[in-house]
Amino acid sequence: MASVPTAVGAPAERREGREKVTGTARYAAEQPRPGRLHARPVPATIARGRVTGIDTAAALEVPGVLTVLTPENAPRLAEPDDATLALLQNSRVPHRGWFVALVVAETLEAARAGAAAVRVRYAAEEHDVALTASHQQAYVPEEANGGYPARTERGEPDAAFGSAAVRVDTEYRVPPLHNHPMEPHATTAHWDGERLTVHNSSQGSTAVRATLAQMFQLPEDRITVVAEHVGGGFGSKGTPRPDVVLAAMAARHTGRPVTVALPRRFLPTVVGHRAPTLQRVRLGADADGRLTSLIHEVTTHTSRVKEFVEQAAVPARIMYASPHSRTLHRVVPLDVPSPSWMRAPGEAPGMYALESAMDELAGELGMDPVELRIVNEPDTEPDSGRPFSSRHVVQCLREGARRFAWSARDPRPGSRREGPLLVGSGVAAATYPVQMWPSTAEARALPDGGYLVRVNATDIGTGARTVLAQIAADVLAVPLERVLIQVGSSDLPSASLAGGSSGTASWGWAVHEASSQLAARLAEHSGPLPGEGLAARADTAGKADADSPWSRHAFGAHFAEVGVDTVTGEVRVRRLLGVYAAGRILNARTARSQFVGGMTMGLGMALTEGSTTDEAFGDFAESDLASYHVPAHADVPDVQAHWIDEDDPHLNPMGSKGIGEIGIVGTAAAIGNAVHHAIGVRLRELPLTPDRVLAALADRGGRGR
């Protein structure tokens, strides 16, 4: 019998690719049910207060408008665990942009016109949206996002810092950042008696079903949530958002299917954002560059609706060896929209500050930045003492330096000029935790010789369908084309959400186990298969979420070369290079796409992305893609992603780590360090926009010819 080619690791094409490029893939708002209505929310125009009256008369006169839901007539819901979903239940306005009404109409255009015609009266109250490190209401929470303790301390970090031979004490600022997926948040909801079906743009339909069941007081088996195709999320679709609740409410109220597609300008205020962070990093080292003290303290904001604390100081707990260390998170409750997850929450802003500070320390020492990181490589996780399941940061740095030709770099800042351009290069390390959650999956052998794998995974554009099929094909020792896969519906075996770079590791474990059990059953079976085939089901509860004695992380190294225009202040990234240690790579094609996508998002974080909070109105000033600038193709001329072979037996049956977020983690720092190398001035606030660069050049006295 001929051997079957190994499917795992191969650069298999995405299974849904043809559907997407031909337009046949249906997304949440593209569900043309008979009698479907459209609904548009009405956002509050004050930053804090309460609604005193809503005049819907003009809206109801708009042709096609059927009804306007307000706190007076909206269906009553059970109080949700997530307070951002308690919509149209009372008159409170906790922040600007909070939805205070919903216009339901025959067409999208009528709904939009009707929403513009609604008149709302308010009793406004004084508001506070300004984040400062000295804010009187700042406090240390019990824990930060992810369940991490808000504070850790080892040794005597202040005394050790004070006595260090070389010291760096700096502050960094990262502004509010927004996810802006290609497909805005959308839901189409339909009731059939007491049975609810929703098509929702979500990173996890199992969680959406559970939330709807609780709020509408229904058994979960009466709810089906479908998320077959999702046009990106980056964390903002990780939990249910207002669109799904509003669509279900409107569908129940009208008795007809309803689609709610949130306008892009509404997204920053209602689907989460990366909270701004004010970060102070203190590094003390001996003359050889070995850290003696590491202190990373973060102040961020949260809303008054619910607490969310960006865990930006957490990476400092595992990254570098230091006998004395403190990490601290402080949070200020403000009248702002609720922050939430954005790609690599905690790690992305935290590593920007830490890796920038490491670059500053290298400058103070007169030491190569790559070598400084290698000198401070820990043997075990510094805070816990746990051994690493695998840790190949040094290999990533060495391989990246070789590929980038780092040794040819003149370390002197401002030493390379090309006409009006100053050219520089920078490096940063990266880390992201390995996370896995329980999931269930079913694998079935069919009489026609095919195989069907069913799991409620969510493919948010990462190629999950393809990779899971590869895992099953490998275990079953059959060609990849014989494996069919079903994902994206809560009627399938339940699975965790697509977030925290945990999806493939979590779902893949369940698929691997179900396929292994099926292979064993087939080996014992004789004769033809029954009409329904032969099936096996796996549940990884108690295994995927079991405590581990190992510290499990993906690691990487980022290198960047930039050209800074001394006349315009414009920064152009010429080259980006990433090298990663992320366990076994399951699909070379989709993995490279994920790495490059993360690096591109990190480039945006460094140079163009950022929003400001208008203190007078309590609103984000940049609320669409005309003002919130994300990278275009012209911004990323040369981006390369590579990885090293890593065999880690302490993860899951596939030996895989998450790859969706490690690509963004160190990119902004590498670019910032490259800008410093180019112009000789350190900019410590993102993004590195032309106005800030020109101001730095003016201070330096090096404004170009």
Low-pLDDT stretches are none
Main β-sheet description: 7 strands, mixed
Number of strands: 28
What structural class do you assign from the helix and strand content? alpha+beta
What strand order characterises the main sheet? 3-5-1-14-11-12-13
Q: What's the end-to-end separation, in Å? A: 73 Å
Percent strand: 15-25%
| Fraction in helix | 10-25%
Principal-axis shape = globular
Give the overall average pLDDT.
Answer: 96
Describe the secondary-structure layout.
Blueprint: H1 17-22, E1 37-43, E2 49-55, H2 57-60, E3 65-69, E4 92-93, E5 99-105, H3 108-117, E6 119-124, E7 143-144, E8 148-149, E9 151-154, H4 157-162, E10 166-174, E11 186-192, E12 195-200, H5 205-216, E13 223-226, H6 242-254, E14 258-261, H7 267-270, E15 277-285, E16 291-303, E17 325-334, H8 347-365, H9 369-375, H10 393-404, E18 417-418, E19 421-433, E20 440-445, E21 451-454, H11 464-476, E22 483-486, H12 503-524, E23 534-539, E24 553-565, E25 571-581, H13 588-607, E26 613-614, E27 619-620, E28 639-643, H14 662-665, H15 667-679, H16 690-700
Helix pairs in contact: 8-15, 11-12, 13-15
